[in-house]
Specification:
Elements: H1 9-15, H2 40-54, E1 59-64, H3 66-77, E2 82-88, H4 98-109, H5 118-124, H6 132-139, E3 142-144, E4 150-152, H7 156-166, E5 181-186, H8 197-203, E6 207-212, H9 219-222, H10 224-235
Parallel strand pairs: 1-2, 2-5, 5-6
Antiparallel strand pairs: 3-4
Length: 236
């Protein structure tokens, strides 16, 4: 959520040394089209349509956070399209976060006409978002328009409206995927707790769980070498 394929450039380049790698932006994010609604079923359908357009029958999927929820749903509902699954620091459960609401409030309240730089935007959001790293992450979604004013690349109103649904667990009680799965967890993150392991194995009976102790919620950026090594071990 609020990330983009830009966050995967370095990790994708590492993995591309031995395989073809595609980094996709989900709808309303990055360079993908904006849409008036945003559900997990719709995002799954977008990915399936992209696979069909590329003529790809199946692929190894790596999904982080919200993208991990999309990948989990895709594996459970369309298992023949998923050769293997790597889920990064997310579990099949409900996430309700006041932090998310503060982040969206800060972005919506930001007067883009007064923004002079990404650094300036970070300072203006400090009251709502005290974490420096998170402010920096949020402002990666700012780009200068042709009129030299800053604009959000994400479809902010639609994502904010969709947030309650995006916090939900996309999987139903009977959803499962029996293929190879690895959950890569950040040891400093609170997104996946030991209590979540039962739900992980209920939906993904073959799942392994690997923790990168030095990482927070973004192991593909915070501890890239260890993350790439974990993915390579899983893919073989």
């Amino acid at each position: 959520m609020l990330g983009s394929s830009r966050n995967w450039i370095s990790t994708g380049a590492d993995l591309a040394a031995e395989r073809h790698v595609w980094a996709l932006d989900l709808r309303n994010h990055g360079k993908s089209p904006h849409a008036d609604s945003m559900t997990y079923a719709e995002m799954m359908a977008d990915v399936l349509a992209w696979l069909d357009a590329q003529g790809i029958e199946s692929a190894d999927f790596v999904g982080h956070s919200m993208g991990g929820k999309v990948a989990m749903l895709l594996a459970c509902r369309h298992p023949t399209r998923v050769a293997s699954l790597t889920v990064v620091d997310i579990a099949p459960k409900l996430y309700q976060s006041n932090r998310h609401r503060a982040e969206f409030a800060a972005m919506i309240e930001l007067n883009l006409a007064e923004v002079r730089s990404r650094g300036d935007a970070e300072l203006k959001m400090e009251g709502r978002v005290p974490d420096w790293g998170m402010r920096k992450f949020l402002t990666t979604n700012l780009e200068r328009g042709e009129d030299d004013t800053w604009q959000w690349t994400v479809n902010l109103p639609v994502i904010a409206q969709a947030l309650p649904g995006l916090e939900q667990n996309p999987l139903g009680g009977t959803d499962s995927y029996d293929g190879p799965v690895c959950f890569v967890i950040g040891g400093k993150s609170r997104y996946v707790q030991p209590a979540d392991h039962d739900a992980i194995h209920r939906h993904f009976p073959a799942a392994g769980i690997e923790t990168i102790e030095a990482s927070g919620h973004n192991p593909h950026m915070e501890t890239r070498p260890a993350f790439v090594a974990a993915v390579r071990r899983h893919l073989g």
